Amino acid sequence: MSKKILVTGGIGYIGSHTVVELLQQNFEVFIVDNLSNSHISVLEGIEKITGKKPHFTKLDLVNKLAVEQYFTKHHDIDAVIHFAALKSVNESVAEPLKYYQNNLGSLINLLSNMISLKLNYLVFSSSCTIYGQPDRLPVNEEAPKKTPLSPYGNTKQIAEEIILDTINANDFIKAISLRYFNPIGSHPSSLIGELPLGIPNNLVPYVTQTAAGIRQQLKVYGNDYNTSDGTCIRDYINVVDLAKAHVVAVNRLLENKTKENFEVFNLGTGKGYSVLDVIKAFEKVSKKKLNYAFTERRSGDVEQVWADATKANKVLGWKAEIGLEETMLSAWNWEKKYRGI
Ligand code: NAD
Ligand code: WQD
Predict the structure, then answer these.
(1) Where residue 1 falls among pLDDT bands split at 50, 70, 90?
(2) Are residues 261 and 135 in the same domain?
(3) Cα 37 to the chain's mean position, in Å?
(4) N or C: which end of the chain has fewer CB within 10 A?
(5) Is residue 109 in contact with ligand 1, taking CB distance under 6 Å?
(6) Does residue 249 have its Cβ closer than 6 Å to ligand 1?
(7) How many angstroms does the Cα of residue 249 sit away from the middle of ligand 2?
(8) Residue 152 bears catalytic tag
(9) Does any domain span residue 196?
(10) pLDDT in tens, 209-252
Protein backbone atom coordinates (compact mmCIF):
# COMPACT_ATOMS: atom_id res chain seq x y z
CA MET A 1 0.00 0.00 0.00
CA SER A 2 1.31 3.45 -0.83
CA LYS A 3 2.31 5.67 2.08
CA LYS A 4 0.18 8.68 2.88
CA ILE A 5 2.00 12.00 2.99
CA LEU A 6 0.42 15.19 4.29
CA VAL A 7 1.88 18.21 2.49
CA THR A 8 1.00 21.51 4.14
CA GLY A 9 1.34 24.48 1.80
CA GLY A 10 1.28 22.00 -1.09
CA ILE A 11 -0.31 24.48 -3.51
CA GLY A 12 2.61 26.90 -3.03
CA TYR A 13 5.82 27.19 -5.03
CA ILE A 14 8.07 24.57 -3.45
CA GLY A 15 5.18 22.49 -2.12
CA SER A 16 3.60 21.99 -5.55
CA HIS A 17 6.90 20.85 -7.07
CA THR A 18 7.34 18.42 -4.19
CA VAL A 19 3.81 17.07 -4.60
CA VAL A 20 4.68 16.26 -8.23
CA GLU A 21 7.79 14.31 -7.19
CA LEU A 22 5.86 12.46 -4.45
CA LEU A 23 3.05 11.46 -6.82
CA GLN A 24 5.62 10.29 -9.36
CA GLN A 25 7.11 8.08 -6.64
CA ASN A 26 3.63 6.64 -5.97
CA PHE A 27 2.97 8.26 -2.61
CA GLU A 28 -0.63 9.13 -1.81
CA VAL A 29 -0.60 12.87 -1.26
CA PHE A 30 -2.89 14.90 1.01
CA ILE A 31 -2.54 18.67 0.61
CA VAL A 32 -3.78 21.25 3.08
CA ASP A 33 -3.42 24.91 2.16
CA ASN A 34 -5.41 28.03 3.00
CA LEU A 35 -4.53 29.55 -0.42
CA SER A 36 -3.31 32.74 1.28
CA ASN A 37 -0.35 32.90 -1.11
CA SER A 38 -1.30 30.50 -3.88
CA HIS A 39 -3.97 29.69 -6.41
CA ILE A 40 -6.08 26.56 -6.62
CA SER A 41 -5.39 26.31 -10.39
CA VAL A 42 -1.98 24.87 -9.41
CA LEU A 43 -3.82 21.59 -8.75
CA GLU A 44 -4.58 21.33 -12.47
CA GLY A 45 -0.90 21.74 -13.32
CA ILE A 46 -0.01 18.99 -10.85
CA GLU A 47 -2.64 16.69 -12.39
CA LYS A 48 -1.50 17.42 -15.94
CA ILE A 49 2.11 16.60 -15.11
CA THR A 50 1.47 13.46 -13.10
CA GLY A 51 -1.86 12.17 -14.36
CA LYS A 52 -2.80 11.83 -10.69
CA LYS A 53 -4.99 13.78 -8.34
CA PRO A 54 -3.76 14.64 -4.87
CA HIS A 55 -6.36 15.00 -2.10
CA PHE A 56 -6.89 18.67 -1.30
CA THR A 57 -8.46 20.40 1.71
CA LYS A 58 -8.64 24.17 2.07
CA LEU A 59 -7.69 24.74 5.67
CA ASP A 60 -5.97 27.36 7.81
CA LEU A 61 -3.46 25.57 10.01
CA VAL A 62 -3.73 28.34 12.59
CA ASN A 63 -7.31 27.22 13.22
CA LYS A 64 -6.81 24.73 16.06
CA LEU A 65 -10.23 23.15 15.86
CA ALA A 66 -10.10 22.74 12.08
CA VAL A 67 -6.69 21.08 12.32
CA GLU A 68 -7.97 18.69 15.01
CA GLN A 69 -10.96 17.79 12.87
CA TYR A 70 -8.70 17.21 9.87
CA PHE A 71 -6.48 14.84 11.80
CA THR A 72 -9.43 13.00 13.30
CA LYS A 73 -10.46 12.19 9.74
CA HIS A 74 -6.92 11.54 8.50
CA HIS A 75 -5.37 9.76 11.48
CA ASP A 76 -3.53 7.31 9.23
CA ILE A 77 -1.10 9.83 7.69
CA ASP A 78 2.39 8.32 7.59
CA ALA A 79 4.47 11.50 7.38
CA VAL A 80 4.07 15.26 7.21
CA ILE A 81 6.00 17.73 5.06
CA HIS A 82 5.37 21.18 6.48
CA PHE A 83 5.81 23.95 3.91
CA ALA A 84 2.94 26.20 4.97
CA ALA A 85 4.26 29.57 6.10
CA LEU A 86 4.28 33.21 5.14
CA LYS A 87 7.62 34.13 3.58
CA SER A 88 7.90 37.83 2.78
CA VAL A 89 10.83 39.33 4.66
CA ASN A 90 9.56 42.92 4.18
CA GLU A 91 6.02 42.12 5.23
CA SER A 92 7.31 40.36 8.33
CA VAL A 93 9.12 43.54 9.39
CA ALA A 94 5.92 45.55 8.96
CA GLU A 95 3.59 42.94 10.49
CA PRO A 96 5.66 40.76 12.82
CA LEU A 97 2.73 39.35 14.80
CA LYS A 98 1.07 38.08 11.64
CA TYR A 99 4.25 36.09 10.96
CA TYR A 100 4.68 34.75 14.48
CA GLN A 101 1.02 33.78 14.66
CA ASN A 102 0.87 32.16 11.24
CA ASN A 103 4.23 30.42 11.05
CA LEU A 104 4.55 29.36 14.68
CA GLY A 105 0.81 28.91 15.40
CA SER A 106 0.47 26.47 12.50
CA LEU A 107 3.56 24.53 13.53
CA ILE A 108 2.32 24.23 17.12
CA ASN A 109 -1.10 22.99 15.98
CA LEU A 110 0.54 20.47 13.70
CA LEU A 111 2.90 19.15 16.38
CA SER A 112 0.10 18.93 18.99
CA ASN A 113 -1.87 16.67 16.68
CA MET A 114 1.20 14.62 15.81
CA ILE A 115 1.66 14.01 19.54
CA SER A 116 -1.93 13.08 20.24
CA LEU A 117 -2.16 10.77 17.21
CA LYS A 118 1.34 9.40 17.69
CA LEU A 119 2.38 10.43 14.17
CA ASN A 120 6.08 9.87 13.83
CA TYR A 121 7.61 11.76 10.95
CA LEU A 122 8.02 15.42 10.03
CA VAL A 123 10.00 17.20 7.32
CA PHE A 124 10.30 20.94 7.95
CA SER A 125 11.07 23.81 5.53
CA SER A 126 13.86 25.82 7.08
CA SER A 127 16.10 28.44 5.50
CA CYS A 128 19.68 29.58 5.11
CA THR A 129 18.45 32.88 6.54
CA ILE A 130 19.20 31.42 9.98
CA TYR A 131 22.96 31.64 9.24
CA GLY A 132 22.81 35.42 8.55
CA GLN A 133 26.21 36.46 7.21
CA PRO A 134 28.29 33.38 8.06
CA ASP A 135 31.84 33.80 9.39
CA ARG A 136 33.08 31.06 7.08
CA LEU A 137 32.04 30.08 3.57
CA PRO A 138 30.74 27.75 2.36
CA VAL A 139 28.49 27.46 5.42
CA ASN A 140 27.78 24.05 6.94
CA GLU A 141 25.12 22.90 9.39
CA GLU A 142 27.42 23.39 12.39
CA ALA A 143 27.73 27.13 11.83
CA PRO A 144 26.23 29.26 14.61
CA LYS A 145 22.80 30.73 14.03
CA LYS A 146 23.01 34.52 13.80
CA THR A 147 20.66 37.13 15.22
CA PRO A 148 17.75 37.03 12.75
CA LEU A 149 17.56 39.94 10.34
CA SER A 150 13.75 39.81 10.21
CA PRO A 151 10.76 38.39 12.10
CA TYR A 152 10.40 35.94 9.19
CA GLY A 153 13.95 34.67 9.78
CA ASN A 154 13.23 34.50 13.49
CA THR A 155 10.20 32.25 12.87
CA LYS A 156 12.53 29.73 11.19
CA GLN A 157 15.00 29.79 14.11
CA ILE A 158 12.24 29.47 16.71
CA ALA A 159 10.48 26.78 14.67
CA GLU A 160 13.59 24.60 14.71
CA GLU A 161 13.80 25.07 18.50
CA ILE A 162 10.10 24.23 18.93
CA ILE A 163 10.56 21.03 16.90
CA LEU A 164 13.66 20.01 18.86
CA ASP A 165 12.01 20.64 22.24
CA THR A 166 8.93 18.69 21.11
CA ILE A 167 11.05 15.75 20.01
CA ASN A 168 12.99 15.78 23.26
CA ALA A 169 9.72 15.45 25.13
CA ASN A 170 8.17 12.92 22.70
CA ASP A 171 10.84 10.62 21.43
CA PHE A 172 8.56 8.79 18.99
CA ILE A 173 8.66 11.89 16.77
CA LYS A 174 11.52 12.18 14.30
CA ALA A 175 12.10 15.23 12.15
CA ILE A 176 14.32 16.42 9.35
CA SER A 177 14.81 20.15 8.92
CA LEU A 178 15.85 21.14 5.41
CA ARG A 179 17.60 24.49 5.20
CA TYR A 180 17.01 25.81 1.70
CA PHE A 181 19.32 28.32 0.08
CA ASN A 182 17.72 30.31 -2.79
CA PRO A 183 15.13 28.19 -4.66
CA ILE A 184 14.50 29.36 -8.23
CA GLY A 185 13.17 28.10 -11.56
CA SER A 186 10.19 25.98 -12.43
CA HIS A 187 9.11 22.53 -13.50
CA PRO A 188 10.42 21.78 -17.04
CA SER A 189 6.83 21.29 -18.25
CA SER A 190 6.08 24.96 -17.40
CA LEU A 191 2.79 23.71 -15.98
CA ILE A 192 3.71 24.84 -12.45
CA GLY A 193 6.16 27.50 -11.32
CA GLU A 194 6.71 30.48 -9.05
CA LEU A 195 3.68 32.76 -8.82
CA PRO A 196 4.49 35.75 -6.62
CA LEU A 197 1.52 37.97 -5.81
CA GLY A 198 2.07 41.64 -6.65
CA ILE A 199 5.54 43.10 -7.08
CA PRO A 200 8.13 40.37 -6.56
CA ASN A 201 10.71 40.81 -3.79
CA ASN A 202 12.93 38.05 -5.09
CA LEU A 203 15.47 38.43 -7.84
CA VAL A 204 14.48 35.82 -10.42
CA PRO A 205 10.75 36.59 -10.72
CA TYR A 206 11.73 40.26 -10.96
CA VAL A 207 14.14 39.41 -13.79
CA THR A 208 11.58 37.38 -15.75
CA GLN A 209 8.78 39.91 -15.19
CA THR A 210 11.06 42.72 -16.40
CA ALA A 211 11.94 40.76 -19.53
CA ALA A 212 8.22 40.06 -20.04
CA GLY A 213 7.53 43.81 -19.91
CA ILE A 214 5.53 43.72 -16.66
CA ARG A 215 8.23 45.62 -14.73
CA GLN A 216 10.15 48.44 -16.32
CA GLN A 217 13.60 47.86 -14.91
CA LEU A 218 15.38 45.56 -12.49
CA LYS A 219 17.16 47.40 -9.71
CA VAL A 220 20.34 45.67 -8.66
CA TYR A 221 20.77 46.38 -4.97
CA GLY A 222 24.39 47.45 -4.58
CA ASN A 223 27.53 47.01 -6.68
CA ASP A 224 30.01 47.98 -3.98
CA TYR A 225 30.05 44.72 -2.00
CA ASN A 226 33.32 42.96 -1.31
CA THR A 227 32.71 40.36 -4.05
CA SER A 228 34.30 39.75 -7.46
CA ASP A 229 31.87 42.03 -9.34
CA GLY A 230 30.56 44.04 -6.37
CA THR A 231 27.09 42.41 -6.31
CA CYS A 232 25.80 39.98 -3.66
CA ILE A 233 26.39 36.26 -3.92
CA ARG A 234 23.82 33.52 -3.27
CA ASP A 235 23.42 29.79 -3.79
CA TYR A 236 20.58 29.48 -6.30
CA ILE A 237 19.06 26.00 -6.28
CA ASN A 238 16.65 24.59 -8.86
CA VAL A 239 13.22 23.98 -7.34
CA VAL A 240 12.92 20.49 -8.87
CA ASP A 241 16.26 19.47 -7.35
CA LEU A 242 14.99 20.87 -4.07
CA ALA A 243 11.68 19.01 -4.35
CA LYS A 244 13.50 15.72 -4.91
CA ALA A 245 15.39 16.16 -1.65
CA HIS A 246 12.04 16.07 0.18
CA VAL A 247 11.25 12.65 -1.25
CA VAL A 248 14.65 11.42 -0.09
CA ALA A 249 14.07 12.90 3.39
CA VAL A 250 10.61 11.34 3.69
CA ASN A 251 11.95 7.94 2.65
CA ARG A 252 14.78 8.25 5.18
CA LEU A 253 12.22 8.82 7.94
CA LEU A 254 9.79 6.12 6.77
CA GLU A 255 12.60 3.58 6.46
CA ASN A 256 13.88 4.50 9.94
CA LYS A 257 17.30 5.41 8.64
CA THR A 258 17.76 8.58 10.67
CA LYS A 259 20.77 8.66 13.02
CA GLU A 260 19.27 11.28 15.31
CA ASN A 261 15.68 12.18 16.11
CA PHE A 262 16.28 15.69 14.74
CA GLU A 263 18.48 16.02 11.70
CA VAL A 264 19.29 19.14 9.69
CA PHE A 265 20.58 19.39 6.14
CA ASN A 266 21.63 22.29 3.94
CA LEU A 267 20.03 22.14 0.51
CA GLY A 268 22.10 24.14 -1.95
CA THR A 269 24.32 23.60 -4.94
CA GLY A 270 27.53 24.48 -3.13
CA LYS A 271 28.21 27.22 -5.70
CA GLY A 272 27.79 30.93 -5.23
CA TYR A 273 26.64 33.19 -8.05
CA SER A 274 26.48 36.98 -8.07
CA VAL A 275 23.44 39.00 -9.13
CA LEU A 276 25.28 39.83 -12.36
CA ASP A 277 25.97 36.13 -12.97
CA VAL A 278 22.22 35.49 -12.73
CA ILE A 279 21.47 38.33 -15.15
CA LYS A 280 24.11 37.08 -17.61
CA ALA A 281 22.76 33.53 -17.46
CA PHE A 282 19.26 34.87 -18.08
CA GLU A 283 20.36 37.00 -21.05
CA LYS A 284 22.20 34.05 -22.57
CA VAL A 285 19.35 31.56 -22.42
CA SER A 286 16.53 34.00 -23.24
CA LYS A 287 18.55 35.80 -25.93
CA LYS A 288 17.12 39.01 -24.50
CA LYS A 289 18.86 42.09 -23.13
CA LEU A 290 17.64 42.82 -19.63
CA ASN A 291 16.95 46.40 -18.59
CA TYR A 292 18.69 46.82 -15.23
CA ALA A 293 20.43 49.53 -13.22
CA PHE A 294 22.46 49.61 -10.05
CA THR A 295 20.93 51.23 -7.04
CA GLU A 296 21.81 51.45 -3.34
CA ARG A 297 22.08 48.38 -1.14
CA ARG A 298 18.86 46.81 0.21
CA SER A 299 18.81 46.90 3.99
CA GLY A 300 19.06 43.47 5.60
CA ASP A 301 20.84 41.81 2.65
CA VAL A 302 23.80 39.62 3.55
CA GLU A 303 26.81 40.10 1.30
CA GLN A 304 27.46 36.51 0.36
CA VAL A 305 26.29 33.06 1.32
CA TRP A 306 26.51 29.65 -0.26
CA ALA A 307 26.07 26.17 1.05
CA ASP A 308 28.36 23.43 2.11
CA ALA A 309 25.97 20.68 1.03
CA THR A 310 28.40 17.83 1.79
CA LYS A 311 26.18 16.42 4.54
CA ALA A 312 23.14 16.16 2.24
CA ASN A 313 25.36 14.70 -0.52
CA LYS A 314 26.86 12.04 1.74
CA VAL A 315 24.10 11.21 4.20
CA LEU A 316 21.02 11.66 2.01
CA GLY A 317 22.75 10.68 -1.22
CA TRP A 318 21.15 13.78 -2.74
CA LYS A 319 22.88 16.30 -4.98
CA ALA A 320 21.67 19.33 -6.90
CA GLU A 321 21.99 18.37 -10.56
CA ILE A 322 20.58 21.26 -12.60
CA GLY A 323 22.83 24.22 -13.48
CA LEU A 324 22.07 27.93 -13.39
CA GLU A 325 21.45 28.39 -17.13
CA GLU A 326 18.98 25.52 -17.39
CA THR A 327 17.23 26.81 -14.29
CA MET A 328 16.99 30.36 -15.64
CA LEU A 329 15.57 28.99 -18.88
CA SER A 330 12.91 27.10 -16.92
CA ALA A 331 12.00 30.32 -15.06
CA TRP A 332 11.74 32.19 -18.37
CA ASN A 333 9.69 29.46 -20.08
CA TRP A 334 7.29 29.47 -17.14
CA GLU A 335 6.92 33.26 -17.24
CA LYS A 336 6.31 33.21 -21.00
CA LYS A 337 3.74 30.43 -20.77
CA TYR A 338 1.95 32.04 -17.83
CA ARG A 339 1.78 35.43 -19.60
CA GLY A 340 0.92 33.90 -22.94
CA ILE A 341 4.01 35.43 -24.60
P1 NAD B 1 4.65 29.79 -0.95
O2 NAD B 1 4.09 31.03 -0.35
O3 NAD B 1 4.63 29.67 -2.43
O4 NAD B 1 3.94 28.50 -0.33
C5 NAD B 1 3.50 28.46 1.00
C6 NAD B 1 2.07 27.92 0.98
O7 NAD B 1 1.59 27.83 2.34
C8 NAD B 1 1.11 28.82 0.21
O9 NAD B 1 0.38 28.05 -0.72
C10 NAD B 1 0.18 29.40 1.30
O11 NAD B 1 -1.11 29.62 0.83
C12 NAD B 1 0.25 28.30 2.36
N13 NAD B 1 0.00 28.77 3.74
C14 NAD B 1 0.58 29.80 4.39
N15 NAD B 1 0.08 29.90 5.63
C16 NAD B 1 -0.82 28.89 5.78
C17 NAD B 1 -1.69 28.47 6.83
N18 NAD B 1 -1.74 29.14 7.99
N19 NAD B 1 -2.48 27.40 6.62
C20 NAD B 1 -2.45 26.72 5.44
N21 NAD B 1 -1.67 27.09 4.41
C22 NAD B 1 -0.87 28.16 4.58
O23 NAD B 1 6.15 29.65 -0.40
P24 NAD B 1 7.32 28.67 -0.86
O25 NAD B 1 8.36 29.50 -1.52
O26 NAD B 1 6.78 27.50 -1.53
O27 NAD B 1 7.90 28.27 0.57
C28 NAD B 1 7.56 27.06 1.20
C29 NAD B 1 8.30 26.98 2.52
O30 NAD B 1 9.70 27.07 2.28
C31 NAD B 1 7.98 28.08 3.50
O32 NAD B 1 7.97 27.54 4.80
C33 NAD B 1 9.13 29.05 3.34
O34 NAD B 1 9.34 29.82 4.48
C35 NAD B 1 10.27 28.09 3.09
N36 NAD B 1 11.40 28.67 2.37
C37 NAD B 1 11.19 29.30 1.17
C38 NAD B 1 12.27 29.86 0.50
C39 NAD B 1 12.05 30.60 -0.79
O40 NAD B 1 12.90 31.42 -1.16
N41 NAD B 1 10.99 30.35 -1.53
C42 NAD B 1 13.55 29.76 1.03
C43 NAD B 1 13.74 29.11 2.25
C44 NAD B 1 12.64 28.56 2.91
C1 WQD C 1 18.80 37.65 -4.11
C2 WQD C 1 19.84 38.70 -4.50
C3 WQD C 1 19.37 40.90 -3.65
C4 WQD C 1 15.76 41.60 -5.97
C5 WQD C 1 15.27 35.85 0.42
C6 WQD C 1 14.97 35.73 1.88
C7 WQD C 1 15.48 34.43 2.41
C8 WQD C 1 15.00 33.26 1.57
C9 WQD C 1 15.11 33.49 0.11
C10 WQD C 1 13.17 32.19 2.66
C11 WQD C 1 20.19 39.64 -3.36
C12 WQD C 1 19.34 40.89 -5.15
C13 WQD C 1 16.90 41.03 -5.44
C14 WQD C 1 15.89 42.73 -6.82
C15 WQD C 1 18.28 42.61 -6.55
N16 WQD C 1 13.62 32.99 1.80
N17 WQD C 1 18.14 41.52 -5.72
N18 WQD C 1 17.16 43.20 -7.08
O19 WQD C 1 17.38 38.08 -0.21
O20 WQD C 1 18.84 36.09 -0.80
O21 WQD C 1 16.67 35.72 0.22
O22 WQD C 1 14.62 34.77 -0.25
O23 WQD C 1 13.63 31.69 3.61
O24 WQD C 1 15.06 34.35 3.72
O25 WQD C 1 15.62 36.81 2.54
O26 WQD C 1 16.75 36.48 -2.09
O27 WQD C 1 15.87 36.77 -4.36
O28 WQD C 1 15.41 38.55 -2.64
O29 WQD C 1 17.70 38.30 -3.52
O30 WQD C 1 19.39 43.08 -6.80
O31 WQD C 1 14.92 43.29 -7.31
O32 WQD C 1 19.28 39.53 -5.53
O33 WQD C 1 20.00 42.07 -3.19
O34 WQD C 1 21.54 39.93 -3.47
P35 WQD C 1 17.48 36.69 -0.68
P36 WQD C 1 16.32 37.53 -3.18
Answers:
(1) confident
(2) yes
(3) 13
(4) N
(5) no
(6) no
(7) 26
(8) yes
(9) no
(10) 999 999 999 999 999 999 999 999 999 999 999 999 999 999 99
